[in-house]
Known about the structure:
The complex is a heterodimer of chains A (172) and B (278). Helix content of chain A is 76%, strand content 0%. Chain A is an all-alpha fold. The longest helix of chain A is centred in the first third of the chain and has 29 residues, at 5-33. Chain A is globular. With 278 residues, chain B is of the alpha+beta class. In chain B, a hairpin with a 5-residue loop joins strand 2 (133-141) and strand 3.
Amino acid sequence: MALPVETAVWPERLASLHREHYRSLVRLASLLLGDVGTSEEVVQDAFVRLQVRRSGLRDPERAAAYLRTAVINGARSQMRRRKVRERYLGRRTVVPWGPSAEAGALIGAEQQWVLAALECLPDRQREAIALRFYLDLSEADIAVAMKVTPGSVKTHIHRGLATLSELLEEQR
Amino acid sequence: MTRVEEQVREALSAATAGIRPDEGASQERIATRTIVVRRRRRTATIGTAALVIAAAGITIPRLWATREQVVEVGSPSTPVTAPTVPPSYVFPLRPSDGSTDPSVTAERFVRDWLGFPNAMVGEFQTTPGLERTGEVAISSRKEDGTPGRQVSTLALQQAEDGGIWYVTSARADNVVIDSPTSSSVVVSPLGVSGRGVGFENAIVVRLRDGKGDILCTAPAIADAPDFTQPGPFAVTLEFGPPATSAGVLVATTDAPAEFATPDFTALPVNFSLVQLSS
């Protein structure tokens, strides 16, 4: 008996999703977490969840959106764990954003100021700004990924950019 | 695009430019982790299912066994409220066969269900101190059409005010079932023992399922010493999977004449899950 079409094409679709989105999702997660190793874990978790629950995915065309949401949620979980650990240990364990030697060579001084300023933003504002200016998502897609309303997305981005402007102005 | 937006875009792009994850290795890692997660889920599902089945296997027979509730008789001034649904009953197994008149329910049980067309149904007598509970005497019919000897007493209970009446048991002095007791969980082969006396001391034991179908009929001879006092009898019933979870065990004396009404006793039983699933 032949496999159902959906079952037959799924591995190919998954490979295609991986090719198209894996790298950008790892980069997105690392913008939020500042740690490439943990970011890879988070993104791989999202792919594993997608494979395990693919029968529960109502619209396969929304797989990319599902992955983005899963990565955002995974990053939030990691951040929460870090904060709990921080409180428990009574000291800061979150490593401030710092480029690797290789990446550092590619980043100018002004960009490093911008990245440092981004670190000062609340988590939700940082997520919205990363999704908007790194992944180039629309407000509607960001709302889906963050599970908030488009209005909230607009507010997060507006406030985040306002804060960044002030911080960067102070540096000048 | 504003200046700050441009700065953010450039900074994010530069910050991520150096991140080059090993995509080949990640695919293998995802595949391995997917297998592990699926295996864990399968194990958890099987474990949960096994626990549920085990719990049901233990709990349901116990619940059935405790369906027979003891209703304490209070003083006449403080009537005890009967439960809204009889804990166990023998008739009607389909509500449409019941009646809001206890005498009609009794008549349908004896004449239609048990198949004693000449049985005479007495008046319903309310049990003092118990709401919606009472008894009806069943007698044989004399040739002149008047009630003869009493052959059984039906216990009846009304489910709720204005609801139908249920026959919860039938008991007779001349045929008594000692084992199994009312609402027991039974399985084939079922040993039935009791006491009886009657025409040639012949006793017939029948097991019916919830639809009224006879699952097994077995004759026995009571060891009555002098045809006046009941003597012990024992018989083993072997029956196949019943269609329903509950049934009725009926024991009758053997009637000397066709269409005569024998003494009879009836009690509800529950079939074990093992028997139901076999």
